[in-house]
Amino acid sequence: MATMQFKNINKVYINGVQAVFDFNMEVKDGEFIVLVGPSGCGKSTTLRMVAGLEEISSGDLIIDDVRINDKAPKDRDIAMVFQNYALYSHMTVYHNMAFSLILRKENSDFIHERVLWAAEVLGLTPYLNRRPAHLSGGQRQRVALGRAIVRDPKIFLLDEPLSNLDAKLRGSMRKELKALHHRLGTTMIYVTHDQIEALTLADRIVIMKDGYVQQIGTPVEVYNNPANLFVANFIGTPPMNFFDAMITKDGKIVVAGNEIDIQGHDVFNALKEKKYLGKEVIMGIRPEYIRVEKKKSGYKGFPSVCDIYELLGSDALIHFDIANIAVTAKINSREVIDPGEEITYDFDIEHIYFFDKDTEMRIYAEHK
Fold it and tell me: Are 328 and 238 in contact (CB under 8 A)?
């Protein structure tokens, strides 16, 4: 196990393109860190710099109080699991897992013990004499993990290891990875573009965009309290809804021609303290905090019409328009609303977010 420190890490390629800007983070011993973001955001480049496969242009990478910038990959005591498994097709599962220890000229009894232990941990014992071609995708991914854990490295690096699996298998492998981390207690750095993987696996998530870190926090922190508009839109399925809004001086939100009274709420106090009264902002709300019902006489919600109803099982998504802005709400599926049916909606004020129109940073008010 190991601690890590990223101190002002930058990566600039020879053509002048900068892929990572001032990456700073401390990783605790045994922590599961997930780097997440869209393609080209710098997450895989960061992982490759840790592995020693990419040179660090400036800054310091420290593992257990030792600067490792100039250490060769083989001297970093790091194991990496790739997206494409990278298994030897002519070798059995046993020999694929044993290969790195054989190269290190470890004692044969030690190699045998480590391979059997890893196979037991990963549920691969019945498959030790099979070749990769005779394994399922999930089994091959477990072999790749087994090849890494037999070495007992300080740090595991995992570069989108589940992206080649189908949706159902990805779900089961996420649980296996989480259980494996709990059992081993080893520091893990995991790269993915899938925010569901990030939310379900991570102790802390690092959200990146265009080479910059946007936010670092626990899954609950980044979901409930996104630092800016990008994080709010990127984290969450379906994504947050956004509207242009005006905050009046008497404590109302004017959005899409409707007025919502926020006097007495924490968010109003935050807006007042930050001097946003009388200004335009971007308002955001997650689908689960928009209340939607079939239109009923006497109900005081705002009117609209259901465009699409999507059944998800216990929940359903309702798609409708607010002043020509497409909106998604998540409701309990017990109430089926047909396309074209009139609805009423309103917002849970305690779960409304506000962002500055120019900086796109969140105007702070704590959400729980």
Answer: yes
CA 191 remoteness from chain centre: 9
Main-chain dihedrals φ then ψ at residue 114, nearest 5 degrees: -65, -40
CB-based contact 180:144 (threshold 8 Å):
no
pLDDT digits (tens, 9 = 90+) for 24-58: 999 999 999 999 999 999 999 999 999 999 999 99
Q: Which two tokens stand for residue 158?
A: 């995992």
- Reported as a single tens digit per residue, the pLDDT across 314-346 is 899 999 999 889 999 999 888 889 999 999 999
Q: How far is the C-alpha of 49 from the C-alpha of 34, rounded, in Å? A: 15
Largest CA distance in the chain: 80
Q: Is-contact 247 253, C-beta < 8 A?
A: yes
Q: In what order do the strands lie in the sheet with 241-247?
A: 258-261, 252-255, 241-247, 280-285, 352-356
Rounded Cα distance between 262 and 259, Å, is 10
- Total residue length of the chain: 368
Closest CA to 78 of 94, 59, 92, 61: 61
Nearest to 234 by CA among 219, 246, 245: 219
pTM check: above 0.85? yes
Q: Is pLDDT at 160 greater than 90 in this prediction?
A: no
Q: Which of 252, 182, 258, 227 is nearest to 353 (CA)?
A: 227
